[in-house]
Records
---
Amino acid sequence: MSKLISIGKVLNFHGIKGEIKLGFTAGKENLIKSLKKVYLFVDNNKVEFSVSSVRFHKNFAIVKFDGINSIDDVMKIKGLLVHVPEEFLKSKLQKDEFLISDLVGLEVFDTNGEKIGKVNDIGENKASNLIEIEKLNGLKFMVPFVKEWVPEVDLDGKKIVVNMIEGIDSSASDTGVEK
């Protein structure tokens, strides 16, 4: 089995027939609708669940797993992360979507080809994901993960290109965050 990646969390029960309220990243409804099998780690044991239905209510997915038929059953898995195989998730990515695990560690270059550092982490805010870049001198700064700032991601070449727009100084501040 390949690496498993978390796509959501069992938040609570919905109704009395074993449906779960699944928290997931906004905008990923098509991914959630396509689920057939998922994995949860119950008491540190990987357990496979077949998905029998998915619908949406407010900002949550209401999901029914085969074998989960009551509130008591849901309470045994409440709070657990829902995982899918990495290959399944990659097959559902849109153009210009990437797994965080594929981006962290990539070398970072400016648009002139000069090496800046490496991708240290990915964060998010309400507007976009943020890439934390660790410069060659060890200081860190963040840029929005949008085309204007990151015009190229080359997973095969293990690099990204960052547009060093005016205001992103070539020397990160002592706090590690650009002003």
---
Amino acid sequence: MNELLVMRHAKSDWTAGHADFDRPLNDRGIRAADRMAGWLLDEQLCPDHVISSPAARARATAMAVVFCCSTDNHQVEFEQRAYLADAFTWLQLVASQPSGLTLICGHNPGLDDLVDHLSASPVPLSDSGKLMTTAAVAHFRFDTSWNELDQGSCELVQLVRPRELV
């Protein structure tokens, strides 16, 4: 059984005047990334492997998980193609993953599309009608190999958003 965690980057700071790629997390984003990292640890969902967009906001979000879960830094990849990647690109990026639990961290709309594409069941939206809100984590399980992921091929175990955690 393989597992995939799809995580959208936490809330970024639009006021700092940075280029899109360089936007850091804002205070709320830092808290949300830490909260979700702690939740993953509590749920024993610490990733064996991490693939993240190298953009500052995604990198900081992924590293919150890596730090909290004590994931081996050698198992963390900041992949340029993951920056603003679409669902198809994400499928290419995970196709060669070894067995285990992989976390990907990136951006919308690609992650919305990926979660919708992979889920065998309808994906629950937030109260505001959104799918992958900032710092949300979708947890999937599947029996196929990574390169066989296809539409509806995964069980969506849960989709958790920071505001839903007490």
